[in-house]
Amino acid sequence: xxxxxxxxxxxxxxxxxxxxxxxxxxxxxxxxxxxxxxxxxxxxxxxxxxxxxxxxxxxxxxxxxxxxxxxxxxxxxxxxxxxxxxxxxxxxxxxxxxxxxxxxxxxxxxxxxxxxxxxxxxxxxxxxxxxxxxxxxxxxxxxxxxxxxxxxxxxxxxxxxxxxxxxxxxxxxxxxxxxxxxx
Length: 183
Known about the structure:
The chain is an all-alpha fold. The chain is built from five helices and no strands. 86% of the residues lie in helices and 0% in strands. Helix 3 (51-71) packs antiparallel against helix 5 (147-181). It is globular and about 55 Å long. The relative contact order is 0.16.
């Protein structure tokens, strides 16, 4: 029997990469996107000098949004799909905007060390969100108990997703700035 989480994760991964491509091409076609993104990241500038605080902010942001995306799957699984799409779109924009300055190697050094952990963790959280949406609506029509599925998803979130996001936040706060400064 196929694992539904694996199938959903593969579909969401595809959506992520398609959205990244769309974001990349949108930024290429509309240079004004750069200013909006720059304003967003300026909010973090005050915390850049303290990597511990930056790590905690990144972790809280990603863990909170991952949990919300997972639990919001009750609404037909739409929110987790939109969340993955938006994240892919933003990654595409960032790649497009930074590539001229940093080159392909620099962009990869800035994204891959933490992204190799963070992106799959968020995709897994969103996969459980889609799965919970399916299980919730199935329980409405078949009478099967929903609570065991919710508890399973929360256990995976706490035991797998949260630790991965914590490590990714540490990499992003401590290692990524060193790699970027070497460009």
